[in-house]
Amino acid sequence: MRKTVLSALLSLALVASPALAVNPDEVLSDPALEQRARDISADLRCVVCRGENIDESNAAIARDLRLLVRERLVDGDSNEEVVDFIVERYGEYVLMKPNTSGANVILWAAGPALFLIALISGALYLRRRSQAREGAVALSSDEEARLKELLKDS
Questions:
Q1: CA 99 – CA 87 distance, rounded (Å)
Q2: Could you read off the pLDDT of 37-95 as tens digits, one per residue?
Q3: Of 102, 103, 82, 106, which Cα lies nearest the Cα of 94?
Q4: Alpha-carbon span 134 to 92, nearest angstrom
Q5: Residue pair 23/54 in contact by the 8 Å Cβ criterion
Q6: Can you tell me the distance from the alpha carbon of 124 to that of 121, in angstroms, rounded to the nearest whole number?
Q7: Where are the chain's structural domains?
């Protein structure tokens, strides 16, 4: 009984822990460099797996990117130089948080701008609609009589 409970808790702990795909042969011997590599990898998206960083992905390209990050760090590159090198090779898609400069400014501003346009359009529509109701013409006595006659038939 006790073994069953312990094995269930152990399996639950393994399932709840973050799934990192970093293999033991990829880990650097220097803990400071390894931590820098992990920090950089957390901000790099796997180009195959959507929404996963390269540390979480099991894809072959993610492994190549992890090895490339570690190789560049061992060669003495700074964190920014490593990220710039990878962005130069694979494009800005590899960044989990894209830059807010250049042409990306249009993308960052498009959402709020379209939201404001939708709010203004909606407000103008509601305003025109409310004004149209105020100017409605009343039914003539003949039309009212015809309406009452139609409603009695139903």
A1: 11
A2: 899 998 899 888 878 888 888 888 888 999 999 999 989 889 999 999 999 998 888 88
A3: 82
A4: 54
A5: no
A6: 5
A7: 2-94, 104-153
Query: What tokens appear for 38 in the block?
Result: 């992990």
Q: Are 6 and 14 in contact (CB under 8 A)?
A: no
Backbone region of residue 98 per phi and psi (left: phi > 0; alpha: psi in -120 to 50; beta: other values): beta
- The predicted pLDDT at position 154 comes to 65
Q: Which tokens sit at 47? A: 């180009």
Reading the block at residue 51, the tokens are: 């929404």
Which CATH class for the 2-94 domain? mainly alpha
**Cα Rg of the chain, angstroms:** 31
Whole-number Å distance between alpha carbons of 124 and 111:
20
Angle between helices 31-42 and 60-74 (to 10 degrees): 130
Quote the pLDDT of residue 58: 86
Report the length, in residues, of the chain.
Answer: 154
* Across 24-33, 40-49, 88-97, 124-133, least confident range: 24-33
CA distance 38 to 54: 9
Cα distances (angstroms) measured from residue 70 to each of 37, 66, 119, 151:
6, 6, 48, 82
